[in-house]
Amino acid sequence: MSRPVVVSDSGPLIALAGCGQLELLIAVFDAIHVPQVVLDETTADRSRQGATNIVDFVQAHAQVHPSRDDAIYTAVATYLDDGEAQALSLAHALGCGVLMDERRGRQAATRQGVQLFGVLGLLLQAKRIGKIKRIAPLLGLMQANGYRIAQALVDETLRLAGESS
């Protein structure tokens, strides 16, 4: 089975760094692309938990791209933050998926015909391929670090993972 290529938005990088699981990205995806603005958003405050890990991970495993100013970016930049708009523009240009959890960004990706991946789906795939044993502790860490995930999505993910009570 071939592994997908993705452009990552900020949220999933922050969530995975916060629970020490950035390496899952290279286990699940064939290649990871990161817009420069996303790297800047996630690492500007080096004192923030996981920021240094993101820098090290991206330097070792991802390709960083300069900002874009194309029709896709222009169309979504009016209602998405710059990182999300850049990620969608780059994913469209590269013909690959986008790793994004923010609802408005996901809706825009769907409208643009860009394949979507989220951190919960990444965790499910990582469990399927044996890279992690349980999802629940990682979700707990992400939430403890302030990563907001709707409870219905958490419950469904745990159900799909065979971890619901």
Plain-language structure description:
The protein has one domain (5-132): 5'-nuclease (Rossmann fold, 3-Layer(aba) Sandwich), CATH 3.40.50. The chain is 55% helix and 11% strand. It contains ten helices and five strands; from the N terminus they run βααβααβααβαβααα. It has helices spanning 10-18, 24-28, 36-43, 51-61, 71-76, 82-94, 103-112, 119-128, 136-144, 151-160; strands spanning 5-8, 31-35, 62-65, 97-99, 116-117. It has a five-stranded parallel β-sheet. Strand 4 (97-99), helix 7 and strand 5 form a beta-alpha-beta unit. It is globular. The mean pLDDT is 94.
Task: Please give a handful of descriptors for the protein shown.
single chain, 165 residues, alpha/beta, Rossmann fold, 5-stranded parallel beta sheet, 10 helices, 5 strands
Q: How would you sum up this structure in a few lines?
A:
Helices cover 55% and strands 11% of the residues. It has 165 residues and is α/β, with parallel strands linked by helices. It starts with a strand and ends in a 5-residue tail after the last helix.
Biggest β-sheet: count, sense, barrel? 5 strands, parallel
Helicity, as a percent range: 55-70%
Strand residues, percent: 5-15%
Number of strands: 5
The H-and-E topology, N to C, reads as EHHEHHEHHEHEHHH
Task: List unreliable stretches of 5+ residues.
Answer: none
Euclidean distance between termini CA atoms: 31 Å
Compute the CA-based radius of gyration.
Answer: 15 Å
Any idea of the CATH class? Alpha Beta
Number of helices: 10
Could you state the CATH homologous superfamily? 5'-nuclease
